[in-house]
Amino acid sequence: MRRIALLTTVVALVAAACGGAGTATSTVADFSEIAVGDPTFTFDPSATTARLRVDTTVRAVCAVAYGESASLGSLATDQDMDAAGHAQHGPVLTGLKPETTYYYRLQGVGPDGTLYQSELMTFTTPAASEAVAGANLALEATVVDVSSEFSDAFAAANAIDGDPATEWSTRGDGDDAYITIDLGAERTVTGLRFVTREMSDGSSITTTYTVTVDDGEVLGPFDAGLDPPLIDVAFTGRVLRFDVETSTGGNTGAVEIEIFGER
Questions:
Q1: 118: Cβ–Cβ under 8 A, 6 or more apart, which residues?
Q2: Which end of the chain is more exposed for a tag (fewer CB within 10 A), N or C?
Q3: Domain holding 181: CATH number?
Q4: Residues of the chain with pLDDT under 50
Q5: Phi and psi at residue 165, in whole multiples of 5°?
Q6: Which residues contact 207 (CB under 8 A, 6 or more apart)?
Q7: Which residue from 189, 3, 161, 162 is spatially nearest to 78, judged by alpha carbons?
Q8: How far from each other are the two terminal CA atoms of the chain, in whole angstroms?
Q9: pLDDT digits (tens, 9 = 90+) for 15-39
Q10: How confident is the model at residue 112, as a pLDDT?
Q11: What pLDDT, on a 0 to 100 scale, did the predictor assign at position 70?
Q12: The pLDDT value given to residue 9
């Protein structure tokens, strides 16, 4: 909870100092002074969520304000646990609409207290991809066991809540991380996706995982990732244990674990 309070304070400071969609004042430096290249966007298949990536030459706590008009109205921050700032940034923008143009502004605070703000820019979401794997059964499931949780803010339930702005993190479990999910009844499963969490230092990234069905058959390993492929499977079961097979170590976990199939 301390991390949330700290980030909330920082976001409020940055938002107030940068003045939302207003014109930058002489007390605010241009974000381009610390930006490395242009920001890039990666969209989920529904085109309702995007991860913005930008690197900076200094460690900074950054945020992005965005909205359908120049008034903006929404704010996203990094999920990285390092509240002291970092140089690789990846805030997740949620609540987007497919095929829609959005305005956004990058803003942040450096270690010397300098406030940075970009010009007002735009991006356009793509068309949504057609879902072919069935319903996401994980949204109605329950976590019944987990290797560990970093804190209440990084609870295991975050991995199946359908919200890419939340995530499950272990307390340093690395390749020993696991999470067990109860679908509530025996289901026919046709697809799996494991969206890994990451830290800006390159740790905590799950690269492959296995799935154990009802304490019996072990499937995989399958590829995980920041934008992982949908894995086509065909099995029936109720309780699924996801084990991290390989990772970059550290506080491994998941932004989302999706289990597609028939209700």
A1: 30, 31, 32, 35, 105, 106, 107
A2: N
A3: 2.60.120.260
A4: 1-26
A5: -90, 0
A6: 196, 223, 224, 225, 245, 246, 247, 248
A7: 3
A8: 36
A9: 444 444 444 444 789 999 999 989 9
A10: 87
A11: 95
A12: 40
Provide the pLDDT for residue 85.
76
């991995």: which residue's tokens?
Answer: 159
Residue that finishes a domain, picked among 124, 158, 185: 124
Q: Which amino acid is present at 75?
A: L
Residue 140 shares a structural domain with residue 119: no
* CA–CA gap between residue 185 and residue 227 (Å, rounded): 29
Residue 44 backbone phi and psi in degrees, to 5 = -75, 165
pLDDT at 82: 58
CATH number of the domain to which 89 belongs = 2.60.40.10
Q: How many residues does the chain have?
A: 263
Report the distance separating Cα 87 and Cα 62, nearest Å.
9
Cα–Cα distance for residue pair 92/166, rounded to 1 Å: 9
Q: Give dist(CA 32, CA 232) in Å, integer.
A: 43
69, two tokens: 């008009």
